[in-house]
Specification:
This protein is of the alpha/beta class. It is built from 14 helices and 15 strands. It has helices spanning about 20-35, 80-90, 100-110, 125, 135-150, 160-165, 195-200, 220-230, 250-255, 265-275, 290-295, 330-340, 340-360, 360-385; strands at about 5-10, 35-45, 55-60, 60-65, 70-75, 90-95, 115-120, 155, 175, 205-210, 240, 260, 280, 300-305, 320-325. The strands form 3 sheets. The chain has a 7-stranded parallel sheet, with helices on both faces. A 6-stranded parallel sheet has the order 12-11-10-13-14-15, with helices on both faces.
């Protein structure tokens, strides 16, 4: 067997919160380890991990974000971490977040003369508007352009996100690294009357579901207004939130008829999707939309904001509807349309699952990324040779 490829991966959250980024990176590392790639992960850790992790994880010093204490910011690489990296003899650095740790890793990789790739997971610029910091966007985009221009590749999860970044002047080194879905787990066959009844949902209720964290940047205010509007119109339906977060307090008061299921994981989450009838996702800050893909694999039609991530997944009039985020009236119209038409729900849901299975298979996606790793290493070596 050939010598294993050795990759240093840095990220802002690897095991202390179970979210889309940490789940994707853990799945990646698990696959790489099974395919002759050794991975050294460097990331902040908390006192209690939220999940078992893949690979060898070295903690980087970190501090909690003052306004969102559940998340941590990594500091610069310590001398001890740099010594560990040197002993590891990496062929490549993969930086998942351009934070303090990411910048430190980029500088150190350049000093070691090791190629660097990065991946784009979170629209931090999109978060700014929800925390009264939109004035920072030009500065933020400038910093991103400078950071990514120093990388061999930037892996972006959706075509719509590539278009958005290109419009911001990000360097032309972007490559598509889409996401897969476990379609054996997320399956319409998991639909359960017992699960619905346990949550106070009748067998014939049409259930509109949201999945994800209940945080401002996922457009919880829009969702609350839309759900309240449906109730005011007397639309026959139920609503359920498969998730939890800091916005839950006021939302429980604003939406007393909504089921707050809390964080669900694994098979229970899959049952929650399959036991619903329509997926609603108003967020405009997604780079991909893992939950939308999980809903598709579960056989649900979707109504989502016409924004990055969802735009590359939902096919208008075929698997669901894409609606401008400022058209809450149209969101309600589309939800009413699907709630009233069982045949449309079944047709859209079946097509959504077909697409999820055919186009989002993890092994093929990770194999393509590994090939991109090798291309980045070769590209860097050629550049050094020509200097």
């Amino acid at each position: 067997m050939a010598e294993p490829l050795r990759v240093v991966l840095t990220t802002g959250n690897y095991n202390y919160i179970k979210d889309g980024v940490s789940l994707t990176l853990n799945r990646l590392v698990g696959w790489l380890e099974r395919n002759n790639v050794e991975v050294l992960v460097i990331a902040p850790v908390a006192e209690e991990a939220a999940m078992a992790h893949h690979g060898r994880l070295l903690p980087v010093p970190s501090f909690a974000i003052p306004t969102r204490k559940e998340y941590r910011i990594g500091r610069r690489l310590t001398t001890q971490l740099k010594d560990e990296i040197v002993r590891f003899k990496p062929d490549l650095f993969h930086i998942a977040v351009p934070d303090i740790t990411g910048h430190s890793a980029l500088n150190f990789a350049e000093k070691m003369q090791v190629p660097v790739v990065s991946s784009f997971h979170t629209r931090f610029d999109g978060y700014l508007q929800y925390y009264n910091l939109r004035f920072l966007e030009p500065w933020f985009h400038k910093k991103l352009r400078a950071f990514y221009s120093r990388c061999e590749h930037l892996y972006v999860p959706s075509v719509s996100m590539i278009d958005e970044l290109a419009g911001q002047g990000i360097a032309d080194n972007m490559r598509l690294w889409t996401r897969g879905v476990d379609h054996a787990r997320f399956d319409p066959a998991r639909r359960s009357k017992e699960w619905r009844r346990a949550h106070g949902i009748a067998d014939d209720d049409v259930v509109i579901a949201y999945a994800g964290r209940l945080v401002a940047e996922k457009n919880m205010a829009v969702m609350a207004r839309v759900f309240a509007g449906l109730k005011a119109r007397g639309v026959a339906h139920r609503t359920i939130l498969l998730g939890d977060g800091p916005e839950a307090g006021w939302m429980r008061k604003a939406l007393p008829d909504t089921v707050f299921a809390g964080f669900l994981h694994g098979d229970e989450l899959a049952t929650g999707y399959a036991s619903s009838d329509i997926f609603f996702f108003p967020s405009i800050t997604e780079t991909f939309g893992n939950v939308t893909l999980e809903a598709m694999a579960s056989g649900l039609p979707s109504v989502t904001a016409d924004a990055t991530g969802s735009r590359s997944l939902v096919r208008e009039g075929e698997t669901g509807f894409l609606v401008p985020v400022d058209r809450e009236d149209l969101m309600m119209v589309r939800l009413v349309q699907l709630a009233a038409d069982g045949g449309m729900r079944r047709e859209f849901g079946a097509r959504a699952r077909e697409i999820a299975i055919a186009e989002h298979e993890w092994d093929a996606i990770f194999a393509h990324l590994r090939s991109d790793y090798e291309a980045a290493i070769a590209q860097y070596a050629l550049g050094k040779h020509q200097e």
